[in-house]
Amino acid sequence: MANNRDEHQSEDYLFKIVMIGDSAVGKSNLLARFARNEFYSNSKSTIGVEFQTQKMLIDEKEIKAQIWDTAGQERFKAVTSAYYRGAVGALLVYDISRRRTFENIGRWLNELHTHSDMNVVVILVGNKTDLKDAREVDTAEGKAIAEAEGLFFIETSALDSSNVTAAFETVVKEIYHILS
Ligand code: GDP
Ligand code: MG
Known about the structure:
Elements: E1 13-20, H1 27-36, E2 51-58, E3 61-68, H2 81-84, E4 89-95, H3 99-103, H4 105-115, E5 121-127, H5 139-149, E6 152-155, H6 164-179
Parallel strand pairs: 1-3, 1-4, 4-5, 5-6
Antiparallel strand pairs: 2-3
Magnesium ion (MG) binds at residues 27-28, 46, 69-70, 72.
């Protein structure tokens, strides 16, 4: 279908996506793995960067995903409204080896919906699947809460890279399909 933006396609899409979830669940490492294929085994290394822009190709359209990461202020309600403002997507991350981080999902959803549009696309991400012996949250539990809350769901490991690209692509694709 023709549209009046055909001449400058490369600027057509810029999606703000926020990383949320408890401290130390692996938000910064998921982003580092996705954007730079890097991993930090001892990351107190939240660099002072607010966001990373990653170009992606979806349906032959160039999409820029502007992915925001918290600078370690994820204590409840310490993330400011500026962080959420304008977000069209979110990765809500918990750590499958720490049940407490799973139990806080509801709080994060409330925060997100207080500060951003109700239509924000959310994927629930159970990270650290490489820690098989330390698992405290079953895959089925993650799936169930995601289904109940209308979220996408995926389990990842920033350490061994599994499903990391898929997590980000799922969100970006869905936003693209809603907006196009
Ligand atoms: P954030 O506070 O949510 O940004 O979490 P970080 O990305 O800083 O990660 C916290 C800690 O968990 C660091 O020591 C990471 O190396 C570790 N980590 C992050 N992702 C994974 C993962 O997938 N598997 C394992 N085993 N450790 C991880
Ligand atoms: Mg971090």
